[in-house]
Amino acid sequence: MIATVPTAPSTLSPPLPLVRLRLAPHGALPRRIDGVWWPYSRDLLIQLPKMLAALPRAWGDITGVTVDAAAWSAAPGRMFVANQVVRLHKAPASPHAPDRVVLLSPGLGRWDLQVIPPDATEEAAALLTAAALDDRRPGADGEARSPAPTAAAGPRGRVGPTGRGTRAPRW
Questions:
Q1: Where is the composition biased (Low complexity) (predicted)?
Q2: Cα distance from N-terminal residue to C-terminal residue, the chain
Q3: Residues 99, 71: contact at Cβ < 8 Å?
């Protein structure tokens, strides 16, 4: 089961939907997959701001997002999220990087999140999460793996020697 992170504190009004996001644990080496995101729909204008709000502060301001053009609903080239402009890039999916979202933060790094299809069952999502985030398996490179569910967004990364994000503790 994918753990969820509340997008806003509870108030008298009904709570907002939770963000289903799990970030990879901190490690010394860069990873191909930095986390797993299981959106509720393919409506990027609705889902993306919630996911960005759930990311750790250490990742800084995300100013660029690249998504699979065929997988998401139509969206403008830019959107205003949390008082900043986020540029949206739509690109064809790569056979080596199926449904991913790439997040860019100037001066801090790049993070790749594997996207679980919104209509996936909890069991399928758990398998995909576990596979995506398991570095112990031979050939564990973040491709075609199932993500293990987690509740909180973990630490964001800094650019390492390879140019890929490496995680620093969130706290």
A1: 147-171
A2: 25
A3: yes
- Render 112-150 in DSSP notation, one character per residue: EEEEPPTT--HHHHHHHHHHHH--SSTT-SSSS-EEPP-
Letter for the amino acid at 22?
Answer: R
**SS3 call for 77:** coil
Q: What is the pLDDT along the chain (171 residues), one digit of tens a residue?
A: 455 555 555 455 555 568 999 999 877 677 789 999 999 999 999 999 999 999 999 899 999 999 998 889 888 899 988 788 999 998 887 776 678 999 999 999 999 999 999 999 999 999 999 998 885 544 444 333 333 333 333 334 333 333 444 433 332
